[in-house]
Amino acid sequence: MQAYVGITDRDWFEFLRSQPHLDEVNFWRPSGTQQFKALQPGELFLFKLHSPVNYIVGGGIFAHFSFLPINLAWESFGKSNGANSLSEMRRQVAKYKHEDDFRTIDYMIGCIILEQPFFIPQRDWIPVPDWKTGIQQGKGYDLSVEPGLSIRRRLRFENIPEYEIREDRARFGEPVLVFPRLGQGSFRVLVTDAYERRCAVTNEKTLPALDAAHIKPYYESGEHLVSNGILLRRDLHALFDQGYVTINPSMRFEVSRKIKEEYENGRDYYRLHGGVVHVPANPINRPSREYLEWHNTTVYRG
Asked: Same domain, yes or no, for 144 and 201?
């Protein structure tokens, strides 16, 4: 099992540490071109402050990496981006890009999305082993052998909130990955990427016009799972939530007669009736039949 120690800004760290009840954070990078491939979902991403403070001070469970326009990153994560406002976040990105006019630019940034973040009390900060001067972004460690094993022991996995890890052998045996439970912002980004940033019904690609819709709402015990989500144009999302449209288990789009009965309109929507819904290439991310049947029978107005 791998871990990655990423260098982070102290202000970002201190701001997030002061926020109550965080279930996710966006560890963003100002570059919108460089991929992050060091971890698999479920592995640990750890925070290290800039030198000379060469200590691991916290971390989270890696869920996903995505390139996002800064507006969507803010809509998805808000203060979990490590800033008090979108304007402040723009200012931070502009600082690293050495730009002055940041007020309207929709920067593309790299987003390392982490679940169940934790912040280690300063008395327990962990010295980073085998750290070389000149490392610019971070370094990976194998947690099964030294020096990564020492990090693993110091972290005391059982004390990290919500982190689940199973051991095949006694105490420090081979770990088994457990996919992290997603927060609302992570759900939005993962659904958006699973559908290749296109509306599942209309193929619309204008990102600000798209929403990640829950099939079964969170308040109805629906989970933040990609299989409980579908990417829809915002007007279709509103109609879907109110039962004027649905998607049947055969992945066909259905439009209720109630639109015409109640609003004497809906011609543009009825043109979509019966159309085949685009689904993600990965079967794991496709809409759950159970959730679709729930929406068909509980929400859809027929």
From this structure: no
Q: Residue 44 sits in which domain range?
A: 2-176
**Domain end (from 158, 176, 194):** 176
* CB 181 within 8 Å of CB 117: no
DSSP string, 36-65: --S--TTSEEEEEESTT--EEEEEEEEEEE
* Contact predicate 80/16, CB 8 Å: yes
Q: Are 27 and 45 in contact (CB under 8 A)?
A: yes
Tell me the CATH number at 129.
Answer: 2.30.130.30
pTM: 0.90
159 and 201 together in one domain: no
- Residue 100 is predicted with a pLDDT of 73
How many CB atoms neighbour CB 289 within 10 A?
13
How are beta strands 229-233 and 210-214 bridged, if at all? antiparallel
Q: Rounded CA gap, 253 and 246, in Å?
A: 6
Q: What is the pLDDT of residue 197?
A: 97
122 DSSP 8-state letter: G
Q: Quote the pLDDT of residue 29.
A: 94
Q: Is 190 in the same domain as 170?
A: no
Spatial distance between the Cα atoms of 169 and 162, rounded to a whole number of angstroms: 21
Q: Say if residue 170's pLDDT is above 50.
A: no
pLDDT of residue 139: 94
Return the exposure string of 248-262: e unless at least 16 CB atoms fall within 10 Å of the residue's CB, then b.
Answer: beebebbbbebbeee
The span from the CA of 2 to the CA of 145, in Å, is: 10
CA–CA dist 63, 80 (Å, integer): 15
Residue 117, CB half-sphere, CA atoms under 13 Å: how many?
27
Q: Rounded to an integer, what distance in angstroms lies between the CA atom of residue 124 and that of residue 59?
A: 13
Q: Are residues 44 and 128 in the same domain?
A: yes
3-state secondary structure of 136: coil
What is the share, in percent, of the chain residues with pLDDT greater than 70? 91
pLDDT grade for 68, boundaries at 50, 70 and 90 = very high
